[in-house]
Amino acid sequence: MPTPRRFFLCTLLVAILALASVQVAVAADDPLPSWHDGAAKRAIMDFVQHVTTPGGTGFVPEPERIATFDNDGTLWAEQPMYFQLAFALDRLKALAPQHPEWKEQEPFKSLLAGDLKGVFAGGEKAIVQLIMASHAGMTTAEFEQIVKDWIATARHPRFNRPYTECVYQPMLELLAYLHANGFKTYIVSGGGIEFMRPWVEKVYGIPPEQVVGSSIKTKFEMRDGKPVLMRLPEVDFIDDKEGKPVGINKFIGRRPVLAFGNSDGDHQMLQWTAAGSGPRFMGLVHHTDAEREWAYDRQSPIGRLDKALDEAQAQGWTVVDMKQDWKTIFPLPAGR
Amino acid sequence: MPTPRRFFLCTLLVAILALASVQVAVAADDPLPSWHDGAAKRAIMDFVQHVTTPGGTGFVPEPERIATFDNDGTLWAEQPMYFQLAFALDRLKALAPQHPEWKEQEPFKSLLAGDLKGVFAGGEKAIVQLIMASHAGMTTAEFEQIVKDWIATARHPRFNRPYTECVYQPMLELLAYLHANGFKTYIVSGGGIEFMRPWVEKVYGIPPEQVVGSSIKTKFEMRDGKPVLMRLPEVDFIDDKEGKPVGINKFIGRRPVLAFGNSDGDHQMLQWTAAGSGPRFMGLVHHTDAEREWAYDRQSPIGRLDKALDEAQAQGWTVVDMKQDWKTIFPLPAGR
Predict the structure, then answer these.
(1) Contacts of A108 (CB under 8 A, 6+ apart)
(2) Interface contact flag, A251 B209, Cβ < 8 Å
(3) Which residue of B has its CA nearest to A252?
């Protein structure tokens, strides 16, 4: 028979072990461990339970569980510039020796002089020129390889890690949680469809055929007896703002039941999602964390969040406060 | 002990039962029961076994098992006119009372007089006019309902059955066989994407997001405070001939490992498929059965099969001879 002291110690030990095992069990059961308990996490989990409960009032059959996600600023960061623009600039610098005329020609002249302000002074026209010069004039297979090479080697200037590690850990968990619950997730981005497809499957678990994005035209040609698709310097489709519902309808043909964005560029996608019948989830990532990431909204030239934030507040859409809602921002670097 | 005569009868009975059970077993094991044993069926089954055998030299991982099918003339009939054209004509007749000006205006005047020859005299321009007048000017939701109503009630003039029962039973079996083997099947059709999406899931087991087709432009608008997509009388994309590889690359972003067509409109899709590395299957349905369906190829204005047939023969692609290879053409009518 134990002494009272030994009995007390034993009891304490059992209690500690029991508590510890409960905590382990809770963590293992939590599909969103990087999310603080709060209104956003609760809203997400309530919604998923609501639409996946067989016989429930909100049940949505699996084939109709379409979820669409913006990419820049929603799944990965978008500061200090859209990552695809960083890709375009690196690409143009590499191409410059073959284009001596760029030394005298805007926006290339400013770009090569490192004068980004001068580049952006040219407005949207200058950006389109840069995109066309860097993204067109090769086959789709060649472009895919160029993107793969860049994404494997380029590093983010602030975080000094590959761009594919500047993705949001809480959103990776959300994607995995939705996949586990029978959702089919799509990226619906203003970014280039062929800039995303080469790496999204590995990084997000989203296959290339579930990417909707902006595109330039391609042309089927026979080259040395083999068919190729040449990328032409001509805009095909801009998948932003009003273009997002158009792209969703064109590529998916079903209305999402869940949509996530972070800027006014996603406003119409959220409106389109909200207008469906039955339960719908509309989410916005609000960049509020200057320390760990960036803080920006109504006045930002990149990722401006203004009208969509007003509507989210008026309609009761879920606004994720990055600083308050997320325990961590980025995943642990690979190999650690 | 049985008499010799009873013994003989018993043996015969056992033999008959054994034979019968073997035949049942063969039928149950045969994923393509409407296909005659022959080169085409063997080529299909050999290919599927080759790419799905783990560790085999031709193994293709499941996510890359993309199979693309033309629709008109490949999955369902296309005579005496493309079924979508029959839809357009029915729709225009219904709209005519609201358009008195059509009485004097081609191609509508000929159409309303029942003079199809006069309609077609206007060439491609006339067809585009008819398509725009019948397919644009409403929301995407309204158009979906119009298609659903038509497909539920219209009947094929020769077979007097719904158009969705003028699909090819052997191809339904092929789709199911591919699905069972981890293939993701897509329709890649010159037909309208929004004309197909409302019914393909039920008829082919192919979800709407796996349809690539021709499209007209749509525009996001707020109407009475609700967002809608208006269908505009403007061509967005023609998914035919050189457009098919472009559409495959745009919508799917992976090269098919198997593709099936029936006309020169599918030639470039088959070339694009064939040009991939690793095992590929290219198939053509050859309409050779005037009695049960139609016989047409090199000279046909609808579904002309000429250059693609030459290349199929030169390259050893699989040509399905409808008359020789298919035991049945159409499924049993619903409810029988």
Answers:
(1) A92, A96, A99, A102, A129, A130, A133
(2) yes
(3) B209
CB-CB under 8 Å, A63 with B201: yes
Q: Which helix (H) or strand (E) holds A243?
A: helix A243-251
CA distance B126 to B115: 13
CB B260 within 8 A of CB B70: yes
Q: What is the Cα–Cα distance from B88 to B82, expressed in whole angstroms? A: 10
Give the chain A residue whose CA is nearest to the CA of B272: A227
The span from the CA of A242 to the CA of A178, in Å, is 26
Q: Give pLDDT tens digits along chain A (336 positions).
A: 445 555 555 555 555 555 444 444 445 689 999 999 999 999 999 999 999 999 999 999 999 999 999 999 999 999 999 999 999 999 999 999 999 999 999 999 998 888 888 888 888 888 888 989 999 999 999 999 999 999 999 999 999 999 999 999 999 999 999 999 999 999 999 999 999 999 999 999 999 999 999 999 999 999 999 999 999 999 999 999 999 999 999 999 999 999 999 999 999 999 999 999 999 999 999 999 999 999 999 999 999 999 999 999 999 999 999 999 999 999 987 655
Asked if the C-beta of B213 comes within 8 angstroms of chain A's C-beta atoms, the answer is no
Residue B66 CB burial class (10 angstroms; 0-12, 13-18, ≥19): buried
> What integer pLDDT is reported at residue B119 of this predicted model?
85
Coil, strand, or helix at residue A99?
coil
Helix (H) or strand (E) holding B212: strand B211-223
Question: Is the alpha carbon torsion for B313, B318, B322, B325 positive or negative?
Answer: positive
Q: Do residues A302 and A284 touch, judged by C-beta distance below 8 A?
A: no
Query: Which of A209, A217, A254 has the most B C-beta neighbours within 10 Å, making it the best mutation to test the interface with B?
Result: A209
Tell me how long chain A is.
Answer: 336
- In angstroms, rounded to a whole number, what is the distance separating the alpha carbons of residues A195 and A212? 11
Residue B226 sits at the chain A interface (C-beta within 8 Å):
yes
Residues in chain B closer than 8 A to A209 (CB atoms): 66, 184, 251-254
- What is the signed CA dihedral for A303, A308, A310, A315, rounded to 10 degrees? -150
pLDDT at residue A24, as a whole number: 44
Residues B275, A219: C-beta atoms closer than 8 Å: no
Give Cα A209 distance to the centre of its chain. Answer: 16
**Cβ contact B189:B181 at 8 Å:** no
What does the pLDDT average to over B283-304? Answer: 97
Choose from B240, B249, B311 for mutation: most chain A CBs within 10 A.
Answer: B249
Using the structure block, give the residue that is written with the tokens 């719908």. Answer: A280
A201 touches chain B (CB under 8 A): yes
